[in-house]
Amino acid sequence: MGNYSFNDLIVGMVSKRSYHFTELRVEAFSALIEDAAPVHVDVEFAKRQGFKARIVHGLFVQSVISGMLGNDIPGTQSVINNLSVKMHLPVLIGQRVDYQVEITALTTAVSAVSLNFFGVIDGETVISGKALCSFPNTSPKFR
Amino acid sequence: MTNKNIFDSLTPIFREVLDSPSLVLTADLSASDVANWDSLNHITLIVEIEALTGLSLSTDELVSLQNVGDFVRLLFDKGYRG
């Protein structure tokens, strides 16, 4: 668990995780957010759409990044301000994604942390993006 | 005129970050005047403005700011010309 203060962080710090999108997990996510779109739950439908199997919800694939930001780097003391994400390829149920998050810049005046992230399956990028996180109660507004 | 250049260069950032496409930056504009100007968006503003200007701002410098005019003066004093 990354219980860092802002001053503990340095540019280039990296966090890695591997997440297996099992059928059980995808079904749980589908129930949790009440998204039973057929491409996620109906294999025949998914195949008619051109996929080899049912695909994982895009937001589920992204959600692992949230866990890495809030638990690894910048860690438990931070919150997410912005997240911009590009989905490159669908993730099929049963696949494992290897994620990496890296700190690219630190903005001391407001204790903000800029990060890049990506996820790959067998070397192919399936998701990438940028995040901006901060440590709450750091900077006054113009009032 | 130089300050006008700074206002002009900051305007697109404020409009995008605060999701306020018609926002007009004035010297006396402050966070209490703009609905979306909360603490999270404020941090994004500072990060984007540092990226735009190439300047590094300190917490002490930001604490003293009361409005956009103060901020523009700070940027000018640190050498930014828009």
CATH superfamily of the domain at 6-21 and 57-134 in chain A: Hotdog Thioesterase
Could you tell me how far the N terminus lies from the C terminus of chain A, measured between alpha carbons in angstroms? 36 Å
Sheet with the most strands, sense and barrel status of chain B:
none
- What CATH architecture of chain B would you give? Orthogonal Bundle
* Global mean pLDDT of chain B: 93
Global morphology of chain B: globular
Helix percentage of chain B: 55-70%
Beta-strand content bin of chain B: under 5%
How many strand elements of chain A?
Answer: 5
Oligomer: heterodimer
From the helix content, strand content and strand pairing of chain B, which structural class follows?
Answer: mainly alpha
| Helicity level of chain A | 10-25%
Unreliable residue runs of chain A: none
By CATH, the topology of chain B is Non-ribosomal Peptide Synthetase Peptidyl Carrier Protein, Chain A
Class by helix and strand content of chain A? Answer: alpha+beta
Rg over CA atoms of chain A: 17 Å
Mean pLDDT of chain A: 94
Main β sheet profile of chain A: 5 strands, antiparallel
Summary tags:
heterodimer, A: 143 residues, alpha+beta, Thiol Ester Dehydrase, Chain A, 5-stranded antiparallel sheet, 5 strands, B: 82 residues, mainly alpha, Non-ribosomal Peptide Synthetase Peptidyl Carrier Protein, Chain A, 4 helices, 0% strand
Helix-strand blueprint:
The complex is a heterodimer of chains A (143) and B (82).
Chain A (H helix, E strand, L loop, with lengths): L13 E7 L2 H10 L5 H4 L1 H6 L9 H14 L7 E9 L8 E12 L4 E10 L2 E11 L9
Antiparallel strand pairs in A: 1-3, 2-5, 3-4, 4-5
Chain B lengths: L1 H16 L21 H15 L5 H5 L4 H10 L5
Helix pairs in contact in B: 1-2, 1-4
